[in-house]
What does this fold into?
Amino acid sequence: MDDIEAKIITNRNIVKDYFLLRLRLARPLGTVVPGQFVMLKIPGNTVFLRRPFSIYDYKRDVMSIMYKVKGSGTLALSNAVKGDSTMVLGPLGRGFNIYNKPNHIVVAGGIGIAGVHLLIKKIKANAHVFYGCTDEKELLLLNDLKMQDKYISTIDGSYGYKGNVIDLFRTRLKDYNARDTQVYACGPEGMLKGLKHALESHRAPCQVLVEERMACGLGLCFGCVKKTLDEKEPYKRVCKEGPVFNLWQICL
Amino acid sequence: MADLSVNLFHNMLKNPVMNASGTLGYGVEIEPLWKVETMGAYVTKGLSLMPHQGNPTPRVWEVRWGMINSIGLQNIGVEAFFRDYMPFFEQKNMPVIVNFFGFTEDEYIQCAKNIVPHRLIIGLEMNLSCPNIKAGGISFGKEPEAVRRLIDRVKSSTNIPVIAKLTPEVDNIADIAQAAYEGGADGLTLINTLPGACIDTHERAFKIRGGMSGPSLKPVAIKAIYECRKRVPIPIIGAGGIMDYEDCLSFFMAGATAIQVGTATFVDPFAIPKIIQDLGDFLDKNGWDSVIDLIGAACT
It folds into this structure.
């Protein structure tokens, strides 16, 4: 882990409010595990704290993140241009554990794809991806990803299954034996709740990448916590013990 | 090389820079980036007699040039701290200030009793901004008489020097400092976060209510240090909005013997080592022999 100077190579609007930011780092990051994140200084001087982003892709000295404009931090980031300087603190947190299983199912919703992109790249030949988004246009977010099977849902039905990704996932779940399966997920809290419900009787192991507002990203401030079933210390730091948690151990 | 060391309660600290309580975890988390013994002393996360689970999220929110936190004092309890983390500081021979709190007077007393004197524990920093649940939730630190009595009771239950960390949300902070001194406090930490809140106008609801920190706090801290220094003869540890070494200079010149850096670490994780380095460079460049010469330099 290190705090590294970086310069923007591109900051491209993919579709609607979604952007892909590519950075050239002054030094390479350490070993990156899919699901880990960085704390990024927002170029300019309007944003005070750094912001956490999943590492979308990484090779040698080029790292990228995919983000959706949601608030003042991401809005300011969307205005950054080629050549702007920034700082990248990372890689941070505990990423996904990739077990040797016949079936790897990845469930993602909306910008949640940013958190599992590197994971899918790593397990591509075995990845069964369920992706839910608003409409056909947002499929641009899947970009160049290669995977074994791809199941798409759109809320407006303009592509694939009409409805949410969990309903689509339910229609396929019986094809997978719980013992031979590992599920990975990233998406809005509602999606994770639905996933937990869908897997209630199936009980496949499932790792989820969660999101929370952060200040330090290093486990110093206890600002970003997720409530778990641990009775002794229920609130675990998303930046330190997470951002990947066992679905069966967190409160949703 | 200018001398950065300061004497605090008969302990020589190699420099006057510490972290503010709760902004450097349990001390171990920063180690991948820099060694905790870079600082003069480490201040623990606020500890209580029993473990405390803290508040639900959101716990942090950015405001213009600062942030509001509502962590709710999550901590593993004083006993677990000594079992799990004290060996780390022993191995480094690192001075520690233990920050602690309670929700009743008796909790403060019991917590102080449970902190066994140790060669590396140079002080107990009392967080006086906690709500007193037996007095309708008003914080301990707002009434001079309550401060005097509580500190007096804590002092009779420990031999470790006691530092009162005061809230700025009071009528006259020098009156509170005076009460802390009369109660027997060995030092003061000035100031804690300033209570604040922000509203989500779209949702017509509070986003967060908690303690505000960051550079906007600095003038409040400087005024408090200056006024308390005139009133009481005990050392002051300054805190509140320090972002760089230039901010530190103001704190020393207002009368602080040492300083604490908090929120700056979230903006730049190397803020503390940079401040220590820059402070030494500044003294060298400007012909100061020792940081001690700066203390109170603006207070004539």
About this structure: Chain A touches chain B through 30 residues (CB under 8 Å).
